[in-house]
Design a protein that fits this description.
The chain has helices at 2-15, 42-52, 122-154, and strands at residues 33-39, 63-78, 84-98, 104-117. The chain is of the alpha+beta class. The chain is flat.
């Protein structure tokens, strides 16, 4: 009998301790964004727009967000003949968030990279690059959303 009472008291205490997940009640679509400016390669801009899925509210009190997207592909390994057999793909996004009064609130650079094996099949290599590009952009979009949610929760 005493064990049941102690168990009930512990359960009541744990439920009423005030813990609440930080991002439980945040809806990214309810964040007040006045304007979003994307710049960079058009295919990368299209991908980041589709994965971020941020909506402009056009309210004068909203945030202004600038996203500068850059992709760099470089040779990271060559064989004895000097032919590239591995490339490094790096995608970086510089994010600037301004208040409605054009004051810089946050400036951060997000980057993600991956190494790709290069073969003799050009079409397969291009398809692999497109898949990796999409994966990297998706990863960066999640990081950006997380940062925007954190910023709005703290303000």
């Amino acid at each position: 009998m005493n064990k049941k009472i102690i168990l009930i008291v512990i359960c009541l205490f744990a439920n009423s301790c005030g813990f609440q997940p930080l991002y439980k009640n945040i809806n990214i679509n309810k964040i007040n964004i006045q304007k979003i400016i994307y710049s960079g390669d058009s295919s990368l801009v299209y991908l980041i727009k589709s994965y971020l899925n941020l909506k402009e509210t056009n309210k004068p009190s909203g945030f202004k967000i600038n996203l500068f997207i850059n992709e760099n592909i470089s040779s990271s390994n060559k064989n004895a003949s000097g032919i590239t057999i591995e490339e490094k793909m790096l995608i970086s996004i510089k994010m600037q968030i301004y208040s409605s009064k054009d004051e810089l609130i946050l400036e951060e650079i997000f980057s993600s990279s991956n190494k790709l094996q290069i073969s003799n099949n050009t079409s397969a290599d291009q398809e692999l690059k497109n898949i990796e590009r999409t994966n990297l952009i998706q990863n960066l979009a999640q990081k950006i959303k997380f940062k925007i949610q954190l910023l709005t929760k703290l303000r």
